[in-house]
Amino acid sequence: MSxxxxxxxxxxxxxxxxxxxxxxxxxxxxxxxxxxxxAELESYRTVLSSGSSAExxxxxxxxxxxxxxxxxxxSRSPLPEVINGTGIxxxxxxxxxxxxxxxxxxxxxxxxxxxxxxxxxxTGQRGSRTSSVQTLLCKLTGAEAACVVNNNxxxxxxxxxxxxxNRDVIVSRGELIEIGGGFRLPxxxxxxxxxxxxxxxxxxxxxxDFRRAVNHDTGALLKVHPSNYDVAGFVESVATGxxxxxxxxxxxxxxxxxxxxxxxxxxxxxDLAPHxxxxxxxxxxxxxxxxxxxxxxxxxxxxxxxxxIIVGRQLWIERLANYPLMRALRVDKLTLAGLEATLRxxxxxxxxxxxxxxxxxxxxxxxELTSRAExxxxxxxxxxxxxxxxxxxxxxxxxxxxxxxxxLNSVAVRLHPDEISEQEFASRLRSGHPPxxxxxxxxxxxxxxxxxxPRQDKTLIQAIVNAIQIA
Length: 471
Ligand SMILES: *Cc1c(COP(=O)(O)O)cnc(C)c1O
Prior knowledge:
- The chain has 471 residues and is an alpha/beta fold.
- It folds into three domains: 6-75, no CATH class; 83-92 and 360-469, Alpha-Beta Complex (Aspartate Aminotransferase, domain 1); 99-355, 3-Layer(aba) Sandwich (Aspartate Aminotransferase, domain 2), CATH 3.40.640.
- Helix content is 42%, strand content 18%.
- The chain is built from 19 helices and 16 strands.
- The strands form four sheets. The chain has a seven-stranded mixed beta sheet with strand order 3-11-10-9-8-4-7, with helices on both faces. It has a five-stranded mixed beta sheet with strand order 2-12-13-16-15. A two-stranded parallel sheet has the order 1-14.
- Helix 6 (131-141) packs parallel to helix 14 (333-346) and helix 17 (366-382) packs parallel to helix 19.
- The radius of gyration is 27 Å and the shape is globular.
- 41% of the residues are buried.
């Protein structure tokens, strides 16, 4: 029998008495250091108990280096800058929309100071925390009223609960979506206490399907933009205008009106098609078509902070604002500040296209992306013994559930290291400083330039060179 391999590992106390410990303790609290030591030792125990030979036993110096790295990680920014090389502009895994400088500044100021959230500064009386954001949202969408909650999923739960609890909500089978991250419409419906009534089929739902299903138990008609998939071919869905007609007719037969709710998902305020980025439903069009409540995210095409925005008729918005759940879903001063600053940019189209980062990235000319890619390729190849990088044609995407089939023309830096696999190289890029998240495509490591900010180009070059030079 061999001896117990764990004996090869020093104790926590032993490591705490190393000369390095003094330096570690100037960088992190003692409790953090002890955790780092334990975690480091644990990693060796796992290796040793898997039956490896004596050679894998770590030296003290090796262990100390490991501890040092763990401490270093603790001292870094909690959510450090990442270079997004995926070409997906609204990447949910990377925090969706990066925000405009003015929004960032507004959030920092609100965070640092006291803010007039519920005080009217003229009268000194209690005021509304959200009135200026509401005014802007009404102006930008043409709605009568607006309110803001934590995210669009929350907006949907609140709306269904406040408007249709214990009543039927009619939805087309073609719109029973799952967005990802646990957002599935039937479950949201259940959480809200509304009863789901499905009509039509996966590919075709007609006006008649809705008309037949409506009765005095109906609490709302719901339309959901199937944002992350595309049913093509023999398809039909019911337009907002038709739902509104049905609801109007039904409303004449009863005391309380029947609302039409439309979850448009991505939150384009206006039609973006003239700008060549496809046909997402716009909030303004949904309001014009007569929807009573229109729901969308703050951090998708709007380019603002995470938020759920609800615009629509005064009557219904008031009902939501006074519903007890509202208190649990409300946003903080940071979100309000960031959202208001972002909405102000949207008041002027030219300003929005220049300063809202998602818009600016989406419309960067291909020629500009190409010359930046060429410069990066030149610099990377120039600092290595062999040529590793080349410019390649690529497709970028809006993401965030927008237009899955619709790509944006793009250019990528393609990397083909010859001594390691693509997976290994991608992993090195992701663990660099700053991390680069590339796209793996048909055995290539691509860094799509459309989602990289020009200010990141220099850092990107260095990070690629570093990743290839790791021994
Ligand atoms: C993205 C999306 C949601 C979820 O929005 P969050 O802001 O992430 O909560 C809901 N509905 C649709 C149609 C969406 O596209």
